Amino acid sequence: MEVALVSDFGLREELKTGDRDVVSERETGSVRGFADTVGLAAARVWRLRSRAWNTLRHPAGWELWRLPPAAVVWMLGTELAVAGWALYSVFKASATTTDLVRFGVIAGCAIWYLVQTQHPEEQRRADDRRGEHIDQTAVWLGSAAVLLPPAYSLTLLLMVRVQRYSIAHKAMTTFLFTTAAHAASILGVHTIIELTALHTWLESGTLPQRPGDILFAAVALVGTALWYFASQTLLISIARGLAWGGWRRQKLIGSWADNADFVYALQLAACTTILGAVNIALVPLVMIGVALRSTRLSQALADTIARSQRDRKTGLLTEDSFHAPAALRLLEDQTDRRPTAFLMLDLDHFKQWNDKYGHSGGDIVLGCVSAVLRQNTRASDVVGRWGGEEFAVLLPDTTREEAMRVAERIREAVAKTAITGLTELASGHATNEPRAVGPIHGCTVSIGVGLSPEHSTDYGELFRAADSAMYAAKRAGRNRVVLAPSASSAPEPPSPRAPTSPLSRAGDSRRE
After folding, report:
1. Distances (CA, A) of 413 to 151, 174, 315, 373, 441
2. What is the structure's pLDDT at 1?
3. Residue 192 pLDDT > 70, yes or no?
4. Are 474 and 346 in contact (CB under 8 A)?
5. How far is it, in rounded angstroms, from Cα 343 to Cα 395?
6. For residue 61, how many other CB atoms are within 10 A of its CB?
7. Of 86, 231, 298, 350, which residue is 20 to 30 A from 136 by alpha carbon distance?
8. Is 161:179 a contact under the CB 8 Å cutoff?
9. What proportion of the chain, given as a percentage, has pLDDT over 90?
């Protein structure tokens, strides 16, 4: 389970896709393609040296310090406690030749799995902007926690986490805390194994035969899975609650679907554990294929869902898929008595771009503007293309001052953006030899800002306030940000449009 505790209004790091494109051009099933994939994974891990060193050299810039003091104390205290627990367990436990063989096999399976899934996993992490991500490496880490002594299982955890960090694009301090939560799960599982008779069966490599022993072993395995799940969930949930100041279930532990994925990974880990206890050679023969197939199906399903909800030209949410998450964020802010901001954006004179550079040129402009929006919004913000040349952004937990600052930064960033890749047209048609032009500046946006609860707590009315303010910005000369007037001010002409989603009528049903 991954979590992003900090998300500010700063620029979001964009994925460096150049290396990935080189490998993806090769056939993934070829020996050359696999060698390139392994080489890329190793190179990325090696490059973490400079990334980690730069982070350690500038402790004042750690995102950890942007959290509330209680969250900082909890995270640092947890990491120190887990580190002490790990040192005690490592020096107390002993290892055998059987443990070394099991470690070698499980580590080899885990490395193969990591290499084979790194590209789609990186894309999933980039697409999943909620801050919650379920990684099925628990298949190997969970089984290692049961079968191996702490020194080996924690070594495997370090190997897995370093590789995943190379594609995670998250703050190191946040990633370290999540790693500490993983380590606490592993150490707790080892403690349960030592306190029960399960360790004797695992060491002997024979499963219990008597019904009572079978039942006890099953209960012990379920207990280890429960600890592995509950300890991570609890540690991370407390950190989230202290960092965000809210204690709603879905915000703390994720959705039921996310937790179901985690439980399924633990079920696969239980199968790996049983096979490893009987004959470690069965693990690579059976579980590598099962784990890869499961992960790829999950990745394909997530990609299909994401594509159905995303605009093809910009990668942002479509209008239809924008309503539900936006209305949910607004409702959460209302429940926790937090302000919300709604931005409506319209590209100025967009028809001129289409007329001069064709519809393909217009698509390039839309892509550049969408990139600016992604760079200047947080993971918790909802960003979508409303259709045509209009965009919408819902900013949860955002005050009037913050909303105006974000809107102004977006407006300035769009105006400074250099549009590249355009092809000049003649008389509205492509010339026989299209001539590339650019970079071209001059793209601007008009932005309207609506606020909740200042303007309305109803989703549809909040949209109309931002929409009317956007049209006011265009009437005032374009390339500007306009805040919707308050209820006591002179009313703007009402916007004829309204969201088509049934969620737009949520405010009416609540009033009834």
Report:
1. 50, 28, 19, 9, 11
2. 53
3. yes
4. yes
5. 8
6. 11
7. 86
8. yes
9. 23
pLDDT tens for each residue of 491-501:
455 455 555 44
d(CA 24, CA 272): 30
- Which residue type is seen at 340? T
CB-side neighbour CA atoms (13 Å) of 317: 17
- 8 A C-beta contact, residue 138 and residue 269: yes
In whole angstroms, what is the distance from residue 217 CA to residue 202 CA?
10
Query: Which H or E element spans position 426?
Result: strand 422-426
**Counting every residue, how long is the chain?**
512
Phi/psi of residue 345, nearest 5 degrees: -125, 140
For residue 327, give both structure tokens: 């209305």
Q: Quote the tokens at residue 366.
A: 């839309």
Tokens read off for 247? 């204690």
What would you report as the CA-atom Rg of the chain, rounded to the nearest whole angstrom?
A: 26
193-232 burial string, b = 16+ CB within 10 Å, else e? Answer: beebebbebbeeeeebeeeeeeebbeebbebbbebbbebb
Query: Coil, helix or strand for 2?
Result: strand
pLDDT digits (tens, 9 = 90+) for 441-458: 788 999 999 999 999 888
- Residue 145 to residue 329: CA distance in whole angstroms: 38
- Encoding tokens for residue 371? 């990139």
Pairing of strands 445-452, 481-483: parallel
> Tokens 């969620």 — which residue?
503
- What is the Cα–Cα distance from 378 to 130, expressed in whole angstroms? 9
- Residue-wise over 432-466: b if at least 16 C-beta within 10 A, else e? eeeeebeebeebbbbbbbbbbebbbbbbbbbbbbb
Sign of the dihedral through C-alpha 22, 23, 27, 30: positive
Residue with tokens 């479509």: 318
Tokens 């070829």 correspond to what residue? 30
Q: Residue 485, by phi and psi: left (phi above 0), alpha (psi -120 to 50) or beta?
A: beta
**SS3 sequence of 74-86:** HHHHHHHHHHHHH
In three state form, how does the secondary structure of 362-422 look?
HHHHHHHHHHHHHHCCCCCCEEEEEECCEEEEEEECCCHHHHHHHHHHHHHHHHHCCECCE
Pairing state of beta strands 382-387 and 390-396?
antiparallel
Alpha carbons 369 and 403: distance in angstroms, whole number: 18
Burial class (CB in 10 A: 0-12, 13-18, 19+), 292: middle
The half-sphere exposure of 124 on its side-chain side, counting CA atoms within 13 A, is: 23
Query: What is the model's pTM?
Result: 0.60
Characterize the bridge pairing of strands 340-347 and 422-426.
unpaired
The helix (run of H) or strand (run of E) holding residue 405 is helix 400-416
